[in-house]
Amino acid sequence: MATITALTATTFDDGSRLLKVDGNLDLAGVGAIETRFYAFCGGENPRVVVDLSGVHFVASLGIRLLLQAAKTVKSRQGSIQFIHPTETARSALEIAGLDSLIG
Fold this sequence. Notes:
Layout: E1 6-11, E2 17-25, H1 27-40, E3 47-58, H2 60-75, E4 79-83, H3 87-95
Parallel strand pairs: 2-3, 3-4
Antiparallel strand pairs: 1-2
């Protein structure tokens, strides 16, 4: 049975955004959330917190998604933080060199 990957986004009054990812960050999972995920990382000076507590598997495409999001946010003078990563997600962040962004 395939896991459906979902993205829940909350924008707060101060403009900061909380993105909650549930499911797998594999080909299908990234395809299901990629456009919306990147949209929430845009704008001027974005402040993004990504909750990875529901991520069960991270493929290379998932690493690319997280790495590209971090680069995009940084290039727009914003901040991004990854919170509550599962052991699988933490390992992927470490491989990508993003472990300094784990909060």
